[in-house]
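To assess whether the prediction recovers the assembly geometry, we first specified each molecular entity separately, as shown.
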Amino acid sequence: MSATIARSWVASANDPDSDFPLQNLPYGVFSVGGHAPRCGAAIGDMILDLAAAEAAGAIEAQGTFARPFMNDFIALGRDTWASTRARLTELLAEDGGNRDLPLVPMADATLHLPIRVTEFTDFYASKNHAFNVGVLFRGPENALPPQWTHMPIGYNGRASSVVVSGTDIIRPMGQLKGEDGPIWSPTRRLDLELELGAIVGADSAMGTRVSVEEAEEMIFGYVLLNDWSARDVQAWEYQPLGPFQSKALGTTISPWIVTVAALEPFRREGAPRDNPLLPYLQEQRPGFFDLQLGWSMNGQMMARTNYNVMYYSSAQQLAHHTESGCPMRVGDLLGTGTISGPSRDQTGALLEMTMGGKEPVTVNGETRTFIQDGDTIALHGHAQGAGYRIGFGPCTGTILPARE
Amino acid sequence: MSATIARSWVASANDPDSDFPLQNLPYGVFSVGGHAPRCGAAIGDMILDLAAAEAAGAIEAQGTFARPFMNDFIALGRDTWASTRARLTELLAEDGGNRDLPLVPMADATLHLPIRVTEFTDFYASKNHAFNVGVLFRGPENALPPQWTHMPIGYNGRASSVVVSGTDIIRPMGQLKGEDGPIWSPTRRLDLELELGAIVGADSAMGTRVSVEEAEEMIFGYVLLNDWSARDVQAWEYQPLGPFQSKALGTTISPWIVTVAALEPFRREGAPRDNPLLPYLQEQRPGFFDLQLGWSMNGQMMARTNYNVMYYSSAQQLAHHTESGCPMRVGDLLGTGTISGPSRDQTGALLEMTMGGKEPVTVNGETRTFIQDGDTIALHGHAQGAGYRIGFGPCTGTILPARE
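The predicted structure of the complete assembly is given in tokenized form:
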């Protein structure tokens, strides 16, 4: 890709610190003024109104951009994903672009969930995180479950509780283990989980297994994902059927879906393998990306890590998801699991960072073990190119007091 | 309700062994001939075509009966549920009914999933089942998890794998624990789970908890539910995040939703409590029904039990589901968990009946520990009234060989 093509006539997109240069073109859903939510593409500090662009004849997407979610566009398939990206690149390029396109300042727009989340599955694919959390929940001998290096462990989450960045999160009430039986209390150990979410872009039929290669082709793109967790509720409820209400208080995703096409130049290997995988999980090419990730609390950066520390890719997770013949559908959201590097300042959750609350951290001069009411957590993520970055935009949430 | 009102001009509905007398009027989705699927009500051996009845002006449901799922009708709310039931009773009554209504022989119709399943949650509310399975998975000391008598444990299942009665189920492949690491194999321990499924009939807002009383009012009706399970896959995968692919091969539900209104005369207490519940789970009135349940393999009855052996009602499960503020939506399906009585001939799963495969059973002269290819499992359920029964109709599935 030449430097010329990579520049846009939307000047702000050419700022090397912009999350949304011409190379990115992530998709989302926005509303502005009295208009109903519709699909858009981020470019610099502007949003290209894709529904209006189609109405004006600049692009063609069978009317799907007028919907308040991206699912129907995504369902048009890979060829349409590619041709639309090529067309948008052409229209927004500095040379030869169409300067009459309908743009809206992002600052004026309300951003909505980019997809109607069909189902939500959350995985557990950072070995550092799985080990650290396992030590805290079960002790060092049983920290890493025996099947962990053989399969991407995951559980079904709750799609209805997925919200877009900026949505306040109410501290949940829950059952906590007490001295003499359970007590009813606001969670005292509210945590974040720094993750990516893969957006499934094609259906698979019941009874059919999807290979890792096919799974690669089924993934439309990625968002940042914060799987808010109530650790005390989790500890009391999670055996033997897994986390349930501890993970249903809210899951925040970033409003822009960064496409696999935009991430392709950053494709990388993940963590080294401890043992060979069964054939159905073996990948033919690297399934990770060099994505610089991190999270902040009340504006202070707390940890930085990289997606390439992970052990299982989203494609491997998707393939495993169909092991039983389970059908997958457009709009399914697959959380990668918490992304943690080996050191404390690389951890994607406070549970790990504070050693289960035993070693507090300092945030703007205040002490924290877990998240307090009024705290704001922001996730950060981008791939760094030569003179540009492929960014995800914001993924934030502020905690409101419990409704007791 | 007088005996006169309870008789229908549809003669087959007056057979005391019919699952679908005038007192029942369950809802489903059917197609016949070249027509697209639409909503219907079962009466005797006929289906009342509700879409055609509305088109003819006999009933009024804002056009929702023309849809290929019941969700939109259900979303109209409790007052509409009640007025529609009253109107259908009037129209189908022997005295004063409307004999011009559009009826279709059930034998000619294809039955579809009655709802578009929004999300699927499965619980674990039979103490007998939880104890029996716990012994097999973890030994008698750790059989019943410590929180079990304090909360209705559940996990999110996979809505996309819910199918209607009569759909063949393909034996899944999966990772099984081997001598030297996992092996890739068709499951060798394929099981059923005899359950009911509650259909959620109203939304709840994120951050809002639903009381048990409110939850009672949110439940539209019930279906039979068979949560097919691959026990060897489950044993290897399920710690610490719960069952995943072992439960995603298919979940079969009966095609007719029996309404709470039809079950009301059979309301009963459940199992006695070991300890008081936290206030948010306390019920003001009995939450169970006197439902005679059972299952058969290849035509031979294997076990009989009753819904009133359960420890937590669907209303308590729904209330617990919102403990964290998790939003519920119309079309959510809540499995009760396997319904097992205390004795072996009352167990709702082969895992329990055969003591983990150690004590085979005889089926039509053949030996079984788990389900073989070609076997057909049918669930059965009804409430017995005086001279009539409120039945669920069939809930069957036949196992096809694995696709290796």
